[in-house]
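Board notes, transcribed. Complex of a protein with cobalamin.
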Amino acid sequence: MRTPYVPSRARRILCVYPRYAKSFGTFQYSYPFFGGRVRAFMPPQGLLTVAAYLPESWQVRFVDENARAATTSDFGWADAVFVSGMHIQRGHINDVIARAHAQGRPVAVGGPSPSGCPEYYPEADMLHLGELGDGTERLLEYLDTHDGRPPRQIRFETVERLPMADFPVPAYSLIWLRQYFIASIQFSSGCPYACEFCDIPALYGRNPRLKTPEQVLRELDEIVAAGAVSVYFVDDNFIANQRAAQELLPHLIEWQVRNRYPLRFACEATLNIAMNERVLALMRSAGFNTLFCGIETPEPHALRAISKDQNLCMPMLEAVQRLNAHGLEVVAGIILGLDTDGPETADHILDFIGASQIPVLTINILYALPKTPLWGRLEREGRLSFDGHRESNVVFLQPYDAVVAAWKRCIAEAYTPEAVYRRFAHQTVHTFPHRGDSPGRGQSPPHPLHPRLPRGSGGIVVLFAVRDIRSHVYAVGHCRLTLGLLGHALTLKVSSARRAASRGRPTTPPSRRPWPCGRPS
Ligand code: B12
Ligand code: SF4
C-alpha cells in the first residue's frame, strides 16, 4: 500500500541509486556477454519500495546510476532527491548529494549505510534511519510542508516499522527490469541469529517480519510480465522463520505450475536448512536452483567463536551433499582473518573446497562493519585500523601480510580453471540431474547467452571476468553476495582474477577504492 499521509500539494521526487564498486560480486565484467542488454546487477529493492510508497499525487523519476547517470536536468526537475545505498557506496552517495546541491535540491538519504552510520553523511539534508515506518511518514510530511534545503540536517528515525504485509509492490514500472543480471524480491526482513560480524540483526531486527504469500505472488506476476527469468530472494536468511518459508513454498509451486515455470529462484539461507527435508523438497518443486550459504570457515572452533554455531548442526560436507541432492547448487561465503585462524587455515579452506566441490565461493577477508558485535569488541581491544591502504580495518592476530597472503592463495588456488571446471563437472553429476522436471522448462526459449544451452537445469556455467578482487571483496561473509543466480551463466573466465590475485596488484587506483566504513573521514 501507499503511505496513508495525504499531502497538501504535488511534489516531484527524484530517486537515485548510486553506482556499486566494481567487483567480483556484481559480475560487471560479464555484462558485455549479454549483448548490451545487462547494465546492472540487481534492481535496488529498497529505493523502489520507497518510490512505490510515496503519495499517489507525487511524481517520481527513478535513476539507477549503474545503468545511467542522473543528469543536471533530472536534478533540476526534482523538488527533492532520495538516495539509498551501502557503506561501500558511501563515496558515490556523497557524490549524488553534491550534484543535487549544485542544483539547489534538498536530499534525503536512507538505506543500510545511512541507517547504520548516519555520521557518514554530514552533507545530507535529511537522514532517514531504518525501514519504512513512522520515520518515513514524518519525512513525507516535512517534504510536503517545506520548500528547498533545510537550514540544518534533520533526522527521521523509524521506531515503529510498517508491517511488511503493508509494503507496496516495488515500483518496477519505473525501471527496465531486463537491464538487470537478475531480478529480486523480498519475502522477509531480519534474522534470529547473531553472527559476530553481521549487522543484519542490528539493522533489521532478530524477529523476522514477513510479506504474505499473496504479496509475493503479486510481485512475481509483475516481475515475470517485465521479462525476468531468474529471481533472487534478497532475504538474509530465507529460513529465518522456517514455518513461514514452509507456508510460502506451496504457493510458489502452485504459481510456477499455473504459469508453466517461467522463473528460476535463488536465495540465501543458513546451512541448517539442510536439516529440513520438507523445505528442501518444496524448494526443489518450486524451482530453486541456487542457494548462497555463509559457510565462513570449515574450522568448528572458529564457527563457535564467531557465534555461527548454526553451521555445526550437522557435518558441513554432508549438509552440502544434501542440498546438492535436492538440485541446489551451493554458493559459499568464506572468511579469512578470523581470530582463530592459524598457519593451517588456508589449507583447511582449500581442502574443504575440494571436498565439498562447491563451484563458486566468495573468499573474503574479515572486515568489521559498524553496529556489529565484532566492531564493538575490536574497538574495546584497540584493534580497529583506519589506515585506508590496508585491505581490512581489522588488526588481525596473525601478521597482516600472512593473512593477506593466505587470502590470495585461497583465491588463486580455488580459481584455477582446472579446479573450477572440476567442481562444475561434479555438479553436473551430483546436483543438476536432481533438479525438478518442471513442465515449462523443456519448452523455454534458448539460453540467452548461448542458443545451444538449455535454459533449465543443466546448462550451467558461471560467467565471471573479474579484474580486481582484492579491494572489493571484503568480508561480511554471510549469506549475501548474490551469486546465487548463476543458474544460467555460462563461461568461466577467471584468469584475470588469478592474475590479479597472484601478482597482488590492484587494478583500481587507490583513490577510487571503495572503502566501506571505517575509512577516516
Ligand atoms: C541485494 C543485496 C546486494 C546487491 C545489491 C543490489 C541492489 N541494487 O540493491 C549486491 C549483490 C550488489 C550487493 C553487494 C554487496 N553487498 Co549487499 N546486500 C544485499 C541484501 C541481501 C538485500 C538488499 C535489499 O534489497 N534489501 C531489501 C530492501 C527493501 O531493504 P533496504 O534496502 O534496507 O530498504 C529499506 C530501508 O532501508 C528504507 N530505505 C532504503 N533506502 C532508502 C532511501 C530513502 C530516501 C528512504 C526514505 C528510505 C530508504 O526503505 C526500505 C524499505 O524498508 C542486503 C541485506 C538486507 N537485508 O538488506 C545486503 C547488504 C545491503 N549488502 C551489504 C554488503 C556489505 C555488500 C557487499 C559489500 C558485500 C561484499 N562482501 O562484497 C557487496 C558490495 C558490492 C559492490 N561492489 O558495490 C551489507 C551492507 C552493510 C551496510 N550497512 O552498508 C548488507 C546490509 C548485508 C550485510 N549486513 O552484510 N548486495
Ligand atoms: S550472517 Fe546470516 S545468519 Fe548470521 S546474523 Fe547475519 S544474516 Fe543472520
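The first strand starts at residue 12 and ends at 17. Residues 191, 193-195, 198, 200-201, 236-237, 270, 294, 478-479 surround iron/sulfur cluster (ligand 2) (CB under 6 Å).
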